[in-house]
Amino acid sequence: MTHRSDRSLSVAGLARVEGEGAMHIRVDDGEVTDVRLEIYEPPRFFEALLRGRGYTEAPDITARVCGICPVAYQLSACRAIEDACGVTVDGTLADLRRLLYCGEWIESHALHIYLLHAPDFLGYDGAVELARDHRSIVERGLAIKKAGNELLTVLGGRAIHPVNVRVGGFYRAPSPAELAALVPALRRALDDALSTVEWVARFEYPDFHHDHELLALVEPDRYAIESGTPATDRGLSFAVRDFEAHIVEEQVPHSTALHASLAGRGRYLTGPLARYALSQHLLSPLARQAAGAAGLDVDCRNPFRSIVVRAVELVYAVEEALRLIEAYRPPQLAAVAVPPRAGVGYGATEAPRGTLFHRYALAADGTITSARIVPPTAQNQASIEHDLRALVGQRLHLDDHRLTHECEQAIRNYDPCISCATHFLTLSVERSHR
Amino acid sequence: MSAAPTLAVWKFASCDGCQLSILDCEDELLAIADRIRIAQFPEASRAVVAGPYDISLVEGSVTTPSDAERIRRIRAQSGLLIAIGACATAGGIQALRNFADVEEFRSLVYARPEYLSTLDTSTPVAAHVTVDLELSGCPIDRRQLLDTLAALLVGRRPDLPGHSVCFDCKARGTTCLLVAGGVPCLGPVTRAGCGAICPAYGRGCYGCFGPAATVNAPALVARLRELGMTEPELTRVFRTFTAAAPAFAAAVPAEEAGA
């Protein structure tokens, strides 16, 4: 079984990813001839249904692209619409947006680390199975997740599809007392996040490295979350408004997600590994110390270790939330006025899974005339397929069961969000029998 | 019940938010797993137990020919089938295609629309198979889901309200935005269940739980006009997350508007 030169590996329905997809890998004469991350999530045509809607509706409508990272959609949409209207939202309102986004990072990273990714390293099918043997560990993850969701609930009204975000700011700014009530749970979450870094640092990681170009938003003086300028680890940098000139999307037959690449440069990767490589020096001293103790270098090229990077970002997001709450003074107005005007606007933020670009064209009365959304998973799809090809090529000695599981794991390394990318995954490895 | 009932979670066209509500039951998730056997829930586990299942939770709307077949197979192996969320109960935001030309939608988003297999409409689960219970909302309310599962475990009727958001605003002590503030609000025609969140945050309800059991849409439409809403705005406000729900689809003229 283990030394057949022609094989085919398949997983028809990938588990512990957000949304629906499949993997299909074909090996002929010991060579990997085809790798397909099939995304069969049914298309929902967001970019088409946004046309004719009011400019103030974009945050609520695009939130529905993804139930795991709705804040990312809301805030990329807000930034793009505000850009089109020539309005900048700064000061306390920008701080509140960063605070809300920290809630989403905490909730999403805790979900991925504990419920979706860690079971792979420990040999369990899922977190419920993991909890049968290690209940207190799963409870710790759920407590961190809950702290993030409580932040989203207080500031956003609810954790999934928050209602309090609007173009220009918020419908209602929280009182200092409402935010202060979150502090005890966040302090516990900070200790738990540090324990998480120590826990995942002890996992065994396959020896595997990638050489993808890494793209993330960067800011001069802090770890980019809700704003920033796109940059890569190989020196490319461009304004958000120029993203369409640099990021090229193409359709492939096996996917309802569009594949993105950098014009003239090829595949690239966005997400925690990219953010860490570009901005780790801007993490808090505590997060950097935790990263160092976990054995992370200034750059992490092993996608399996992305779980460690996510845990370090978890530490940072909790600390940052505590810092922002401490510094909070209520704004005079919960939102700034954003009068409509004809124009095109661009927005990008760092979703938990990577850079999320939005572009809208508006008519003079604010009616959306065209929209474009480039989600992280669509950007990462080519790199994930590249990893699968390299991984399978190095591991043909493994039996189908083991190899298929490692491939599934390689996909989960990137926390793919298929719901987002569809406009994404089932897994199959095919080895032809002679 | 002697043995723990089995639960399956299924996804159709959706954002994953409603099934995420299950994982968002942070304090109760492990207790649920002690009482209910999670037999099929791909987002949470690789383990799959073959059907039939005592309870199926279905998220998402039917938008492809293969999904129209799949929902029948799921119905056939489910004891109770519960549709969860605005997509599964009303077609979701993607039901805006029902009012438009899908061919044009396809070609607008995809360069090679021929690669896609999609239906002209996004339809709720009940348009295809018998549904035993429906949980409204975009997303569903986590507490309502917990109450429904608890009710099924002890054999009582789940508490799923048919009244409007207005009742819950009164219960919450929120001053009426529509009456006192002249803020357009869909609360009077929208099913309760969210906890009347939006008005408590100073914004009008935007109807994400769909129509209440009894709705007087013309009266609200008249009031919204008085408040200065234009016809395209009126159409859009009823045609968002539960656009294809009959009481909302009928609230505004049938012709394509606002686009």
Q: How does this model look, in words?
A:
The complex is a heterodimer of chains A (434) and B (259). Chain A has 434 residues and is α+β, with helices and mostly antiparallel strands. Chain A has 15 helices and 14 strands. In chain A, strand 2 and strand 3 (31-39) form a beta hairpin. The radius of gyration of chain A is 21 Å and the shape is globular. The two termini of chain A are 12 Å apart. Mean pLDDT of chain A is 91; it is low at 422-429. With 259 residues, chain B is α/β, with parallel strands linked by helices. Chain B has helices at 17-23, 29-35, 65-76, 86-90, 102-109, 142-154, 165-172, 177-181, 197-200, 217-226, 231-238, 246-249, and strands at residues 6-11, 37-40, 53-59, 78-84, 133-135. Chain B has a five-stranded parallel beta sheet. In chain B, strand 3, helix 3 (65-76) and strand 4 form a beta-alpha-beta unit. The longest helix of chain B has 13 residues, at 142-154. Classes of the chains: A alpha+beta (434), B alpha/beta (259). At the A-B interface, helix 1, helix 4, helix 5 and helix 6 of A face helix 1, helix 2, helix 5 and helix 9 of B.
C-alpha end-to-end distance of chain B: 53 Å
Distance between the termini of chain A: 12 Å
Q: Helicity level of chain A, as a percent range?
A: 40-55%
Measured by DSSP, the beta-strand proportion of chain B falls in 5-15%
| H/I helix tally of chain A | 15
Along the chain, the helix and strand elements of chain A come as EEEHHHHHHEEHHEEHEEEHHHEEEHHHE
Give a brief outline of the structure:
The complex is a heterodimer of chains A (434) and B (259). In chain A, 44% of the residues lie in helices and 18% in strands. Chain A is an alpha+beta fold and 434 residues long.
